[in-house]
Amino acid sequence: TIARFKGHSVHTYKIKNKPAPFGCEILGLCDVGYTFSFLPKSRIEKSKELEAQTLAGMDRG
């Protein structure tokens, strides 16, 4: 999900042809209208939690 953001930050993303072309990317774990967990994603800083979950997902495949 892209959360609309009009300020200046090195963490914002630009995605063409989206309703909110500039913003912060947020990865969420949701089901039936409930949000269980979310992680903000950054272009500059890598999230250790996100890398660990990505690597764990690769081990299953």
Set out the fold topology.
Layout: E1 2-4, E2 13-14, E3 22-31, E4 34-41, H1 48-60
Q: Secondary-structure element order, as H and E?
A: EEEEH
Arithmetic mean of pLDDT: 71
Q: What is the CA-CA span between the terminal residues? A: 24 Å
Integer count of domains: 1
Shape: globular
Q: Which band does the percent of strand residues land in?
A: 35-45%
Q: Percent helix among the residues?
A: 10-25%
Helix count from the secondary structure assignment: 1
Low-confidence stretches: none
Strand count, sense and barrel status of the largest sheet are: 4 strands, antiparallel
Structural class: alpha+beta
Number-wise, the strands total: 4
Radius of gyration using CA atoms only: 13 Å
How would you describe what is shown here?
- The chain has 61 residues and is of the alpha+beta class.
- The protein has one domain (2-60).
- The protein is 21% helix and 38% strand.
- It is built from one helix and four strands, in the order E-E-E-E-H.
- Strands 1, 2, 3 and 4 form a four-stranded antiparallel sheet that branches.
- Strand 3 and strand 4 (34-41) form a beta hairpin.
- The two termini are 24 Å apart.
- The mean pLDDT is 71.
What can be said about this structure in brief?
With about 60 residues, the chain is of the alpha+beta class.
Notable characteristics:
alpha+beta, 1 helix, four-stranded antiparallel β-sheet, 21% helix, 61 residues, 38% strand
